Amino acid sequence: MTESVNGFFKNLAKLHTTALGEKRISKNLSLPEDCDPVCFCRNIIKCPDSEIKREGKNWYVTGGNCRITVNAGSCTIITAHILKTLK
Prior knowledge:
About 35% of the residues lie in helices and about 25% in strands. It is of the alpha+beta class. A hairpin with a 5-residue loop joins strand 3 and strand 4 (about 75-80).
């Protein structure tokens, strides 16, 4: 794990999103109403099988059949999408 990824993990407690972000993430990932989208994303990020990389100002986390985009400066979850599988 690179030093910058370690810094990302140290800031996981700061991970948040906006009210619109919560709605967008819940809709895009088809989360149940009682599921907290920030907790859901945090658990994916903490999963050892998830791939984490930084491109420009954002972190991209791929795991659990979804991709999560997090602003590196503010620790804001911008969006998340279900990965399309090849058939």
